[in-house]
Amino acid sequence: MIPINSSITIPDDEFELTFSRSQGPGGQNVNKVNSKVTLHWNLLQSKSVTQRIRHRIRNKHAGKINKQGKLVLSSQKSREQHQNRADCFQKLRAIIIDALKTKKRRKPTKPTKASKRRRLDQKKRRSDLKAGRQSRYDY
Fold first, then answer.
1. Averaged pLDDT for residues 57-84
2. Which DSSP category does 65 fall into?
3. Distance between CA atoms of 71 and 17, rounded to whole angstroms?
4. CB atoms within 10 A of CB 96
5. How confident is the prediction for the chain on average, in pLDDT?
6. Ramachandran region of residue 24, left (φ > 0), alpha (ψ -120 to 50) or beta?
7. What's the rounded Cα separation, in Å, for the pair 138 and 110?
8. Is 26 left (phi over 0), alpha (psi -120 to 50) or beta?
9. Pairing between β-strand 70-75 and β-strand 36-42 as defined by DSSP bridges
10. What is the band of 138 on the pLDDT scale with cuts at 50, 70, 90?
């Protein structure tokens, strides 16, 4: 079980973990140890999260979801497999917590009298400035 918050936990059977050889430094160890971890989570068939959260994850992280509807996360930060696995689960936790956040609705407000006055004063000053540039002929 992967705990996300107090109300959401995801069972281990919803995940598919694959291991492969990692890139980067590590000397001889890179050629023989599968330390890179790739996590596949079937977002469309998951019963752990609500439809709203699924929809928000699909909108925000469309590039991480493949054609089968699986969210694919990978980690190769560390030389050790268990640390990379923990990093993948941490990334998943961050994605779900981000999807849980809701935007505050904007309350429409009216401009104050002072702001209206400042705007009109600025317009008047600009108008006077431009009017002063015009040449006046008295015939």
1. 89
2. B
3. 12
4. 21
5. 87
6. left
7. 46
8. left
9. antiparallel
10. low
Which three-class secondary structure state does DSSP give residue 40? strand
Q: Which domains does the chain have, with CATH numbers?
A: 2-100 (3.30.160.20)
Tell me how far apart the alpha carbons of residues 65 and 44 are, in angstroms, rounded to a whole number: 10
Q: Which of 52, 68, 74 is nearest to 8 (CA)?
A: 52
Range list of H helices, the chain: 51-60, 81-100, 113-133
> If phi over 0 gives left and psi between -120 and 50 gives alpha, with beta otherwise, what is residue 82?
alpha
40 in Cβ contact with 90 (< 8 Å): no
H-run or E-run covering 39:
strand 36-42
Question: What is the rounded end-to-end Cα distance, in angstroms, of the chain?
Answer: 93
